[in-house]
Amino acid sequence: MLKERLRRTVMYAAGNNPGLLQNAAIYGADSVIFDVEDSVAVSEKDSARELVYHALKKLKFPCEIGVRINHISTPWGYDDLEYLLPAKPDYIRLPKGESGEEIKDIDNIITKVEEQQGFEPGSIKIMVSIESPKGLRNAYEIASASPRMIAIAIGGEDFAASLKTEKTKGNIFTGGRELFVARSMIVFAAREAGIQAIDSVFSDLRDEETLINEVMLVKELGFDGKSCVNPRQIDLIHQVFTPSEKEIDYAQRVLAVFEEAQAKNSGVIALNGKMIDMPMVIRAERVLANARAAGVYQKEGI
Ligand SMILES: CC(C)(COP(=O)(O)OP(=O)(O)OC[C@H]1O[C@@H](n2cnc3c(N)ncnc32)[C@H](O)[C@@H]1OP(=O)(O)O)[C@@H](O)C(=O)NCCC(=O)NCCSC(=O)C[C@@](O)(CC(=O)O)C(=O)O
Ligand SMILES: [Mg+2]
């Protein structure tokens, strides 16, 4: 069984657009974020907050729904929490996270609201976007600041802006070099804290080929999923993060030969001329758990 919920795609919907809020969850994303931060103009912050509150209270959704609040250092952050937590989002996405203290502060506020509202303690989770060098330096502190933490993400556009460069497109050879170190460090912090790592959005909706290359790169780096901005990006991202038939077949064979080896009291065996030992077994188990969670593999055990 996969310990965490599958989050191959985490799709944003602007909080001031009622049509997007109503439909965002029907396109098959694993997770959806109603945004009251950067997709909402300052003049619309109050009305977006109200729309998101009513959407959460009145609509039923087929996937988990998070809310991206404004940072708590802005004039709107604490009001976002006070107004939106009673509508019980599945999680709060804090943008531009920079320290563990911020997460502890938010955790305490959530705890009080859960008590007041009679929600199950610990049921509202936290996901944090790292969007600056300071946030990156404190990535592990942030990732481990609360048992509510489910994932850290990179906000690539803001991160590149804070480096005084731009987010380029493509893989490590053709672009995307400016985020390479930050992406890896975010995966390291997430893994050390035992939570998920989510990559940034890809803004060019027409360029499907480069999107797929970018998803292949971040999957290789260890990310569990990717933020996105448009329904037509969902299947392309899922295609890369969902184990293929070939990967499933190989994982099954790895587990089968390893079982054989263990029956012979050995911790190592060859499959098609390649050594198979414990790290390959762990990877194979993860491939099958992901495949089961994605609904493309039903068998329990091997
Ligand atoms: C980009 C565009 C305007 C294009 O619109 P278009 O209308 O041209 O798109 P079309 O494809 O024509 O739409 C076809 C049909 O799908 C519907 N539809 C489209 N998008 C939908 C959606 N998201 N949810 C539900 N429904 C959707 C649409 O309503 C239509 O429905 P219908 O009319 O019924 O046919 C639109 O997608 C959109 O607004 N995206 C969300 C933008 C957003 O939230 N940005 C903030 C988060 S990033 C950020 O902040 C950076 C970051 O912080 C990130 C990090 O932290 O990772 C960092 O620093 O990097
Ligand atoms: Mg951002």
TrEMBL record:
Keywords: Lyase, Magnesium, Metal-binding. Its cofactor is Mg(2+). Substrate binds at R68, E131. Residues 8-231 form the HpcH/HpaI aldolase/citrate lyase domain. InterPro entries: Aldolase/citrate-lyase_domain, Citrate_lyase_beta/mcl1/mcl2, Pyrv/PenolPyrv_kinase-like_dom, Pyrv_kinase-like_dom_sf. One of its GO terms (biological process) is oxaloacetate metabolic process. Mg(2+) binds at E131, D158. It holds the Pfam family HpcH_HpaI. GO terms for molecular function: lyase activity; magnesium ion binding. PANTHER family: CITRATE LYASE SUBUNIT BETA, LYASE BETA SUBUNIT, PUTATIVE (AFU_ORTHOLOGUE AFUA_4G13030)-RELATED. This is Citrate lyase subunit beta / citryl-CoA lyase.
